[in-house]
Amino acid sequence: MNWGYRIVLAFGLGVAFILFLVWKTMQVDIEMVESNYYEKEMAFNGKIQATANAKALTNQITVEQQGQQILVKIDSTTAAAITNAEVHFYNPASEKSDKKIAIKATNNGLYYFPVASFTKGKYIAKISFTSAGKNYYAEEVIFIP
C-alpha cells in the first residue's frame, strides 16, 4: 500500500470518527433549566415585591418533611384569605419530576402533600399566592430521600 492510499484511509477514518461523535451528541437529551426564561425574567420585579411581602409575615412560610408527608406552613391569618395560590415543586434535575399543585384557603395554614408522589432528589418548593390583595412568594429547598 503506498502513501496515497494511507492518507485517504486516514482522512476517511477521521471523517467517520467526527460523524460518530456528531451522532452521539445528537442522542443526548438536553433540558433547559427553565423553558420560558424570558417571560419569567420580565416578571422578576413583581416576584421581588412578593418575596418582601412573604418575609414581612409574622410567621414565615416553611416547608418540611414529616414522615411520609411534606408539610407547607403559611401564617394562619394570611392563609384564611388566600386566593390564586400554587405550590410548584421544582426539580432542577428533571422537568418531568416537577409538580404544580393548587392550594385553597384554610383556617390553620397547613398543607400536606404525600412523599410517595415525588421522585427522589432535590426540590425547590416555590410557593406563590395572593392574600388580601397582596402577592406573596417564598422558596424553600427540600430533599426527598
In words, what does this structure look like?
32% of the residues lie in helices and 35% in strands. The chain has 145 residues and is α+β, with helices and mostly antiparallel strands. The chain has a 4-stranded antiparallel beta sheet with strand order 4-3-6-7. The protein has a 3-stranded antiparallel beta sheet with strand order 1-2-5, with no helix packed on it. β1 and β2 form a beta hairpin. It is elongated, with a radius of gyration of 25 Å. It starts with a helix and ends with a strand. The mean pLDDT is 89.
Number of strands: 7
Shape: elongated
Count of DSSP-assigned helices: 4
Query: What kind of sheet is the major sheet?
Result: 4 strands, antiparallel
Give the C-alpha Rg: 25 Å
In which order are the strands of the major sheet placed?
4-3-6-7
- The N- to C-terminal Cα distance equals 62 Å
How much strand?
35-45%
Mean pLDDT: 89
Low-confidence stretches: none
Helix proportion range = 25-40%
Class from helix and strand fractions: alpha+beta
User: Which sequence of SSEs, written as H and E, runs from N to C?
Assistant: HHHEEHEEEEE
